[in-house]
Amino acid sequence: MKYYSTNHQAPLATLREAVERGLAPDRGLYMPEHIKALPRNFFEHIDEMTFREMSFEVAKAFFGDDVDEVSLKQIVDDTLAFETPVVNVEQNIYTLELFHGPTLAFKDVGARFMARLLQYFIRKDNRSNGRVNVLVATSGDTGSAVANGFLGVDGIHVYVLYPKGKVSKIQECQFTTLGQNITALEVDGVFDDCQALVKTAFMDSELNEHMALTSANSINVARFLPQAFYYFNAYAQLKKAGKVSWSEDGTSNLVVCVPSGNFGNITAGLFAARMGLPIKHFIASNNANDVFFNYLQTGNYQPMPSKKTLANAMDVGDPSNFARILTLYDNHWESIKADISGATYPDPRIRESMKECYASTGYVLDPHGACGYQALKEQLGRNDVGVFLETAHPAKFKEKVDDILGTDIAIPQRLQNFMKGKKQSVEMANDFESFKNFLMQE
Ligand SMILES: *Cc1c(COP(=O)(O)O)cnc(C)c1O
Fold it and tell me: How many A from CA of 263 to the centre of ligand 1?
């Protein structure tokens, strides 16, 4: 399968080229040329399959032409070393818990898949000369997921760029304490600055001649597409529990709500729906960074500087995957609005939602998941079943969560292990020349 750029000014790429480049040469995002619908039989029996089995079918639809079945099965099985359970929160509201991976956030899925796919290509090539360098900008959770997904993978070095002082201590220690093939760069700026540095690096020909660069942000197809796996799993679990049905015309009563920042996660869900997964409607829930919400209201896309909020992994003022959504819908605002509704919540509302949910159900939300929960509370129809993606474990934001709920939530052991490590990072000015000079000396 070939991949095209959302800007339509770059030649078609192979999977391997798309994965190694991240961004297309025309600065667009790669899209698979086809989205294969899965057969009726698959949906009829999905609730009898394991998470790995159904994900393998989804993976084959995208990567089956380019990766042999044995290797692909291995990549999927290694990636999904943990479950993504659906848990009832109240009445017809469920949560899809995506925090059971090594860094307790959904990004583990995409990051682990990408690391293994890239390693597959490098090995296939026997490329012993030089290494592949992964650049990743993070507002908190991407960095830890990517760093841990790639940790110790031969032939790959990872540079994590993060905004100084703008990620939580717990997030920070998950990518600054690893050492080995992971270097953390502490940038004097905000997340959008980190993202801009990475994007500029890919366009710099001198730098690209010096070293093989690739991106592991959610723009990378190898991170982005595997996120479709767990939407199938959510549906399968709810079908098994008799909560949602499968009907031949592809409709259902399932509403999926996704706390969104760069919009990679929800876009993977839109792809799952195009593959035939019966999802009635999507809700993109935002914190105070309301660029997409405003687009839904007005049809105008107006990027803004990001605002710092409680749900900091969603502090994005110009979501990169917006280009993919536009392309998927042929720039048709009405169709986008028909499939996706928006929501936006300031910090005080996020706090209230966390408190209300905890008081009435006992379920501890993290600030990101709280945006998802709140949007379902407000928008879910009476006969619908809603599932929101719980994108991170609340312990990743322990200080905030305990402060808001008056709790003392337990820190899972794998998180405690990170906190024992020693921080190693390189301070970096928010300026491309400094960043480039640093890389040129690597
Ligand atoms: C990355 C992240 C998000 C936003 O996901 P996008 O794919 O960028 O929309 C939401 N919540 C958490 C905890 C995250 O780490």
Answer: 8
CB of 174 sitting under 6 A from ligand 1: no
pLDDT band at 247 (very low <50, low <70, confident <90, very high): confident
Residue 412 has a pLDDT of 94
The token duo for 180 is 């080995």
Q: With residue 63 as reference, give the H or E element that holds it.
A: helix 51-63
| β-bridge mates for residue 340, sequence order | 282
> Quick check: CB of 101 below 6 Å from ligand 1?
no
Question: Directed axis angle between helix 191-203 and helix 432-440, to 10°?
Answer: 60
Examine the pLDDT at 188 and tell me if it is beyond 60: yes
Is 105 touching ligand 1 by the criterion CB < 6 Å? yes
Mean pLDDT to the nearest integer, 263-275: 97
Statement: residue 320 has pLDDT above 60: yes
End-to-end CA separation in angstroms for the chain: 34
8-state DSSP, 38: P
Ligand 1 lined by 267 (C-beta under 6 Å): no
Query: What pLDDT, on the 0 to 100 scale, is given for residue 20?
Result: 86
Q: How many CB atoms lie within 10 A of CB 133?
A: 20
What is the arithmetic mean of pLDDT over 237-253? Answer: 87
Is 219 near ligand 1, meaning CB less than 6 Å away? Answer: no
Banded pLDDT at 122 (limits 50, 70, 90): confident
Which pLDDT score, from 0 to 100, does residue 146 have?
92
Whole-number Å distance between alpha carbons of 68 and 181: 28
Give the position, in ligand 1's atom list, of the atom nearest the Cα of 392: 13
Residue 4 makes CB contacts below 8 A (sequence gap 6+) with: 10, 12, 13, 30, 31, 33
Q: Please tell me if the CB atom of residue 223 comes closer than 6 angstroms to any atom of ligand 1.
A: no
Helices 229-240 and 264-274 pack at an angle, to 10 degrees, of 60
Region 83-112: mean pLDDT is: 96
Strand segments (E) across 28-131: 30-32, 86-90, 93-97
Residue 285: how many other CB atoms lie within 10 Å: 32
The verdict on the CB of residue 31 being under 6 Å from ligand 1 is no
Ligand 1, atom 8: closest residue by C-alpha: 262
Query: What pTM value is reported for the model?
Result: 0.91
Average pLDDT, the chain: 94
* pLDDT for residue 200: 94
**CB–CB of 181/134 below 8 Å?**
no
- For residue 262, the ligand 1 atom closest to its alpha carbon is 8
The response to whether residue 289 sits with its C-beta less than 6 Å from ligand 1 reads no
CB 201 within 8 A of CB 161: no
Q: Which atom of ligand 1 is nearest to the CA of 369?
A: 11
